[in-house]
Amino acid sequence: MAEDDISGDAEGEAPAKKSKLPMIIGLVLALAGAGGGFFAVSSGLILGTDMPMENETEEEPILVEPLNGISFIALDPLVINLRQNSRAAHLRFVAHLEVGQEYEADVMLLMPRVLDVLNNYLRAVDLEDLERPGALVQLRAQMLRRVQIVTGDGRVNDLLVSEFVLN
């Protein structure tokens, strides 16, 4: 009979409930961590930027020397006939050369040779290379190198493309 009383009591009672204390502690710690992380990022302690905050005083602006000693030489516009089987019939190319003022006369003297080098290079480039999204950067570097070879090292600093139109 003693066994019947023990088993009868166990069947009639509900099982003991688990404590919700660990879940509440975890939730509080997660909120505290999120708040601390937000504060650290917004105050610049973590992933800080070099930009001054609103309450900081701005430093004096850095004085930049004026650009002296450079000039720009406009190249004659080039119209290149592309291959017959291509969708585009012509390439219109306009550019400027950045040169040192002391070399301006030298580069102007070599201008027919510069135009010849650019014309020959652009005729040799495939249409697929011209239509690629990043092609202009590579083409510009190639053309600048060819112009520097023709004019001599140090005379031409840069090639600035003003117009590059396929039609």
What report would you give on this structure?
This protein is an alpha+beta fold and 167 residues long. The chain has a domain of 97 residues: 2-Layer Sandwich (Tetrahydropterin Synthase, Chain A), CATH 3.30.479.30. It has 6 helices and 4 strands; from the N terminus they run ααβββααααβ. Strand 2 and strand 3 form a beta hairpin. The chain starts with a helix and ends with a strand.
CATH class of one domain: Alpha Beta
Average pLDDT, to the nearest integer? 83
CATH topology of one domain: Tetrahydropterin Synthase, Chain A
Which blocks of ≥5 consecutive residues have pLDDT under 50? none
CATH architecture title of one domain: 2-Layer Sandwich
Kindly state the percentage of residues in helix. 40-55%
Rg value: 37 Å
Task: Return the string of H and E elements.
Answer: HHEEEHHHHE
- C-alpha geometry: elongated
Structural class: alpha+beta
Biggest sheet character: 4 strands, antiparallel
Query: How many beta-strand runs?
Result: 4
Continuous helix count: 6
Terminal CA distance: 104 Å
Share in β-strands? 15-25%
Q: CATH H level of one domain: which superfamily? A: Band 7 domain
Compile the SSE list and pairings.
Layout: H1 2-12, H2 21-43, E1 70-74, E2 78-81, E3 90-100, H3 104-109, H4 111-124, H5 127-131, H6 135-151, E4 156-166
Antiparallel strand pairs: 1-3, 2-3, 3-4
